[in-house]
Predict the structure.
Amino acid sequence: MLLNEGNLQSLTGGLRLTVRIQHPQVHERTDRGGSYWFFRYRDDARQADGTMKPVRKFQVIGPSKGENRLSKKQAEVERDKFLAKINKPTIQQKVADGLVLFSKMVEQYRAAHVEAEVAGRYLLAKPTRDKYVIHLEQRIVPKWGARRLCEISPDEVQQWLFQTCDSWHMMNDLRGILSGIFTKAEEWGYWPEGRRNPISRVKIGED
């Protein structure tokens, strides 16, 4: 469900991408219980205030000795493949890594799931729709709307539920809605495929 670049920029709050040219040398390491090719590179890391900061990283390519060894030339080819996305990232790649603003994801979720109609009929019954809308507008978006999907952690969600809900049933409802939002995010390409839904780690006990 990826959209055009203008809409993707809107979903990420106008995220600015860094384009850098880097071509680090491939080195061989043989002093840590094995022999392998590696290189160091720079990539952007998200900071607590939402900005991006370049950091230096270490990448292992593959074995330099043994049955599945790579020649240095092969290792350099693998390095270039890896760096292709790092040197020139696309907004689609950043969106798929969970950088969509939670408030924007909720807008999509409401339109395509909570308030969606098929053949003139709502997907959800009215009591369920009303409950979802109330929880989204009054509780979920005010708390999490300014975050990006990848900035929402299970421990924070669990503490928030314990501190703000007056019943187990409300905690269960809110957790279910949040989990559904992340499920749809993966289906629509806004969350990495196969990455665990963070809400699955939120434990609220039994009723």
